[in-house]
């Protein structure tokens, strides 16, 4: 497992930070993991799964 930061999540998904947090609030995007007082990251595998789900659902 590997943690990725917001910048990398944005690059992988082509989403802006406000869209990512909106989708998290809606329950349609993986939640971030707290790494400390002011640091969060996402599990890369969960973000990759979300991307694959979007690809599968396009047809």
Automatic annotation (TrEMBL):
Gene3D superfamilies: 1.10.238.160
Highest taxon of source: Bacteria
Name of the protein in its database record: AlpA family transcriptional regulator
Provenance organism: Pseudoalteromonas neustonica
């Amino acid at each position: 497992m590997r943690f990725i930061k917001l910048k990398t999540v944005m690059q992988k998904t082509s989403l802006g930070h406000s869209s990512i947090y909106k989708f998290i609030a809606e329950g349609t995007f993986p939640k971030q993991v707290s790494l400390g007082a002011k640091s969060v990251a996402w599990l890369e595998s969960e973000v990759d799964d979300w991307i694959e789900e979007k690809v599968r659902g396009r047809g």
